[in-house]
Task: structure prediction
Amino acid sequence: MITFKNVSKRYPDGYVALNNIHLTVNSGEMIFLTGHSGAGKSTLLKLIAAIERPTSGTIMINEQNIAQLKPGAIPYLRRRIGFIFQDHKLLFDRNVFDNVLLPLQISGFDNKTVASRVRAALDKVGLLKKEKAMPIALSGGEKQRLCIARAVVHRPNILIADEPTGNLDVEYARDIMAMFISFNQVGVTVLIATHDASLLEDTQHRILSLKQGKLTV
Amino acid sequence: MIRAWVMQHGLMFFLTLKRLISTPVASLLSVIVMGIALSLPAGIYVFMKNLQSISGQAVSSPQMSLFLKLDAVKEDIERIRQYLEENAQIVSFEFVSKDVALHQLQQHSGLTDVTASLAHNPLPDAFIVHTLASDTETLEQLRMTMQKWPEIEHVQFDSAWVERLNALLKLGHYVILMLTTLLSVAIIAIMFNTIRLQILTKRDEIELSRLIGATNGFIRRPFLYFGAVQGLASGITAWSIIAFAIETVNEELVTLTRLYDLELHLQHLSSENSISLLIFSSWLGWLGARLSVASHLWQIEPR
Result:
């Protein structure tokens, strides 16, 4: 479903973030991406959503070459992806409900169905009772779950998470991981970047390791 | 599909109003500034329209006096009458015989004694002619034609004041055009800056929206709406300023003109002109927003 071929990414300042990556992710697969900070995990995830463009190589998603996507087509690619950002990117000027509503407004969903969709997403992450709360009043774990709700509310078939358990307690982290597994079980392709080794101890899913921009499986 | 589109735009309009109201002081100030700026050219336009309509009767059917030769006889008068009837540019005319003219002179000028002492009537027979033509060139041509008729001694037509008024109105139009251009630029600049500030405060939202699949159109839309709605509001303000000014002036004018036994009223903008004003002001607001969005949005590229 997602294929990287000879993908390299060099930033304008000369820093090589990814070096000749080959990678295939099957539909419905769940994959962990590990490595030290600066190893290129975030860059690799951003390439999939066309947030970064590769310097060379091809990235195919469902037969579509992301590396050569026209700017006008990028929004429609991103609507098929749920992205959980490392720095959350929650909007603090609106409540929990409206934060989750945004992706649906962007995709132009019918007004009648959006409320039930938002509540379904909030229910999945256990924030249904906090829909009127402002993000500033949420705990770290709750903020993370809000990000997840926002990433899945439009039912994407690819879910990408960049350090989703970043600075959470082990117990919270396990909750979050359980959510990802349940999304994967309903057929969503899930990619998770993490440097948290404890998450990976007893997983049966594929683990890819990045070191200085190279895959070292 | 179309219903969804209409609903989305309706919703956007509603959200824009909400946003205008959420910062009442700032919105009100910009609307007032833009409204005053618009009211100047529009106000002058209204003033000129009134000037034109007050003097309009004279301008729209100018009057000429045809003085016949002193020795003109009945046949000559009949011939002139026929000429005038055949000329397409002449709307109406009336004959003033020398006797009537003398009588009128005695009645109106208070020169009864002087005229009574005259041995014979020094006045010629005359025709007063109303024409269709309103521009000075055609009038001059008509005058020349009539001057050539052998029975005519003199054609009198004071075109100078029509010319002067026309020149004045033309000048007025230039002033309006200049003011409109300058103040439109000012309004666009105000809108440009307003939207720039809005974009800066909404930076996070714009960046996130891009990251989760918003098209440029989606991101632009609320700002463009804001520009158009604020432009519309300032158009309404300008209209109200003019309406208020006319109302006030009219009260004074009635008192003044009554002293002169006249009936004068300033007219407000016609409904077509009012609608044009509102459309134009909305367009200006939209344009300012559009330019601002074009020059600021690209700076917010998600990382």
Notes: Chain B has two domains: 2-56+163-299, 63-158.
